[in-house]
Specification:
Strand content: 35-45%
Number of helices: 3
Structural class: mainly beta
CATH architecture of one domain: Sandwich
Shape: elongated
Largest sheet: 8 strands, antiparallel
Radius of gyration: 37 Å
Length: about 700
């Protein structure tokens, strides 16, 4: 007679027709394979193979993990320098260098005027110069050059202690630039100049403008003799028929008092009116056309300390929303095409403010989304630019060693919710990343210029001169143009994926792409697959290259690899032709989950033989058979794991699975008259490891 031990008791097993007893050993069956209703694993797939499919990246950058149980991170990326904003994954857009005529100088701001793009530039400060100048230049699309137009030669004012330009706008039929310059008497007065369609300049610092030397020296010599992007001294706004300017009266200057003065003119600078003053430690960060708390259009001033609506008719202001006072907070805040006011913080976050018709202010943190940006791209916004599309362009990061400045495309057409944290966010997509650390993007502009080609212009601050670039056709769908230019290589890093179960090893067999325009070899377009497993670097191993004749790659020469999670890093390469790019529509992993390392045992207990051979303890009124049955019921209903041993195996702890309860096949014995007899027979039972 064969015997097992179960929960400290011994039980005899049933014999078959050949007189043998058996215990059937098997593996615990896994739950059914995970599948997604949104975008990853599909119900109609071959159930023998799990497919993990990425068909697009609508969530954008910032997702360190993809979690299949919640959907979090699905459709997102850990990081990317690929173009993913409009569907297929392609190489990033190519930046083209712009030059400008001598002297070498600093790009500050640009505006579209009479069908052309004009910029204002500061001359680099030189202690040996007798005078400094501010230059207006026009972008020449044919030569990628900022050509000389005119300049403000302020040598007659003895500007030997620097000249700064702070902002530029188009108002009515003129361009206006607000600036500051200093002379040998350490007098640093603000001035405002215009340039007309004939490219002729004029002083617009008319009656009421605070430019009297000795009483309106509001800028320090230190500020006037440098080219820092973050000297937020003055901002301009065209508000209907009124031109509004915000001037910082720096408390460290000769005549400063730590206030921002708001002035306005209705006659293009002939006469100025001082409207209000607002205290600030760092000057005006932005001046925009938005709303007051009564949902009326209003000039709105953004400082590091708060957002203020200005009533220029009644010379009053109201605080809309308080800010944290960080000197990097609020810089170049922008109104998006969705009507929201976007404000960047020194902490790196961007808030979207909106005022409803019921005068309710709503504030939403729109990113960085997901788990945040990778270390090299962290920082804070340095410039924001509204475009004619749904994209808000944000220059970000670059402020320290190991930090590379980026331009992100924020999709203002959609507000999503992280399914795990319930936080709101807008998708961020990559536009451009600088290859050199510790440099900031200081200005951006969008133009179509006279040649009709859309361009995103931007400037990276350099030691002696700005490094100026543009990207042509920045928002064109990559399958709708053959002239879009691409970078030589780009990467796409997928979030670490637990493949449906973070505790269970999965066997990954193959990777596939659905891609257009791949070449036959690595001389032209191809995609290289790198990966890291179980938290290792995603550039640890290169699996192979996807080519026109090789759209699949096998892991470990077809044997496969067993992992709990995997991170994918795809490298796209175009070869030598700038308009070439792979166009990847889908990336897929194939594999299946391996057996769980949990055993199960099936057997049939013979109650009568157990009573005969092991004489269970009984009390008054019990039969031995009832004791055996009761003990087995206790096993089935146990709230803790129980012991199990069979055939000299090491004792293990097991449970009876709740979806396979024991089957009691019982007979009634010695029942007659008023004696109900007792039960005996056989019990079919299954136990499985509980580890």
């Amino acid at each position: 007679m064969s015997v097992i031990e179960l929960n400290g008791n011994y039980y005899a097993l049933m014999k078959d027709s050949n007189g043998r007893s058996s215990v059937t050993q098997s593996y615990v069956k896994r739950m059914s394979s995970a599948f997604r209703t949104v975008g990853m694993q599909k119900r109609e797939d071959d159930t023998s193979v799990n497919r993990y499919v990425n068909t697009g990246f609508p969530n954008g950058i910032g997702w360190a993990r993809a979690k299949r149980d919640s959907g979090r991170g699905v459709g997102g990326m850990l990081d990317s320098t690929c173009w993913t904003a409009l569907g297929p994954v392609t190489l990033g857009r190519l930046q083209e260098t712009q030059t400008h005529v001598s002297p070498a100088d600093h790009f500050k701001q640009a505006v579209n005027f009479n069908g052309e793009l004009y910029g204002v530039f500061e001359e680099d400060y030189d202690t040996g110069e007798a005078a400094m100048s501010i230059y207006w230049r026009k972008f020449n699309a044919g030569t990628d050059t900022w050509d000389a137009v005119t300049y403000i030669d302020i040598s007659t004012s003895g500007a030997d202690e620097g000249a700064r330009a702070f902002d530029m706008v188009v108002h009515k039929s003129l361009m206006f630039t607000v600036m500051n310059f200093g002379n040998g008497s350490a007098q640093f007065a603000y001035r405002i100049y215009t340039i007309n369609a004939a490219e002729s300049s004029a002083d617009a610092s008319g009656t009421g403008w605070p430019d009297t030397a000795g009483t309106h020296d509001y800028v320090t010599a230190t500020v006037n003799e440098r080219n820092n992007y973050d000297d937020d001294m003055a901002r301009l706004l065209s508000f209907g028929n009124t031109l509004v300017v915000a001037l910082f009266r720096d408390s460290a200057a000769n005549d400063g008092d730590g206030l921002i003065e708001i002035l306005s003119t209705v006659d293009s600078g002939s006469n100025w009116v001082s409207d209000v003053t607002i205290p600030s430690g760092y000057g005006p960060k932005a001046l925009v056309d938005w709303y007051n708390l009564s949902v009326e259009r209003s000039p709105v001033l953004v400082t590091a300390e708060g957002i203020y609506a200005i009533d220029i008719a009644n010379n009053t202001f109201e605080l809309i929303y308080g800010l944290d006072g960080d000197p990097a907070t609020g810089r170049w805040a922008e109104v998006g095409n969705d009507g929201g006011l976007y404000v960047g913080f020194g902490s790196g976050q961007i808030l979207r403010l909106a005022i409803t018709d019921s005068n309710t202010l709503t504030v939403t943190n729109i990113g960085p989304p997901g788990d945040g940006l990778v270390a090299a791209r962290q920082g804070h916004p340095t410039y924001m630019l509204r475009t004619p599309t749904e994209w808000l362009m944000v220059a970000y990061g670059g402020h320290a060693s190991g930090k590379n400045a980026s331009i992100f495309m924020i999709d203002t057409s959609v507000l999503l919710t992280d399914p795990e944290t319930n936080k709101k966010y807008m998708p961020w997509h990559h536009m451009w990343q600088d290859s050199t650390g510790n440099l900031d993007i200081v200005a951006m502009a969008y133009s179509t210029a006279s040649d009709g080609t859309a361009r995103l212009h931007f400037a990276v601050e350099g030691a002696a001169a700005s490094i100026n670039y543009h990207i042509e056709e920045p928002f064109v769908h990559p399958e709708q143009s053959s002239t879009v230019k691409h970078q030589a290589t780009s990467i796409l890093r997928l979030p670490d994926d637990d493949l449906g179960d973070p505790q269970t090893t999965a066997m990954i067999l193959q990777a596939y792409v659905d891609a257009d325009d791949l070449s036959a070899d690595t001389d032209d377009e191809f995609i290289s697959l790198r990966y890291g497993t179980n938290g290792a670097s995603d550039t640890t191993t290169t699996l192979g290259n996807f080519l026109s004749s090789a759209l699949s790659q096998s892991f470990a020469s077809g044997v496969g690899i067993a992992v709990r999670r995997i991170g994918i890093n795809l490298l796209l390469d175009r070869g030598s032709t700038t308009t070439n790019t792979p166009k990847m529509h889908e990336f897929e992993l194939q594999g299946h989950h391996v057996l769980q390392d949990k055993l199960a045992w099936d057997f049939v207990i013979d109650i009568a033989a157990t009573v005969r051979d092991y004489s269970p303890d009984v009390t008054s009124g019990q039969s031995a058979e009832e004791v055996v049955i009761s003990n087995l019921e206790t096993v089935a209903q146990s709230t803790t794991l129980i012991t199990f041993t069979s055939g000299r195996m090491t004792q293990t702890r097991v449970r009876v699975p709740n979806d396979i309860p024991p089957q009691f096949d019982l007979n009634i014995v010695d029942s007659g008259g008023k004696d109900t007899g007792y039960r005996t027979g056989f019990v079919t039972i299954r136990v499985e490891e509980g580890i």
